[in-house]
Amino acid sequence: MVFVFGSNEGGIHGAGSALYALQHEGAVAGIGVGFQGNSYAIPSKAVRPHRGGWVVGQTLPLDKIKAYVDEFILFAKAHSELQFKVARIGCQHAGLKNEQVAPLFADAPDNCFFAEEWLPFLQGKQSW
Question: What DSSP assignment string belongs to 32-67?
Answer without folding.
Answer: -SEEETTEEEEEEEEEEEETTEEEEEEEPPHHHHHH
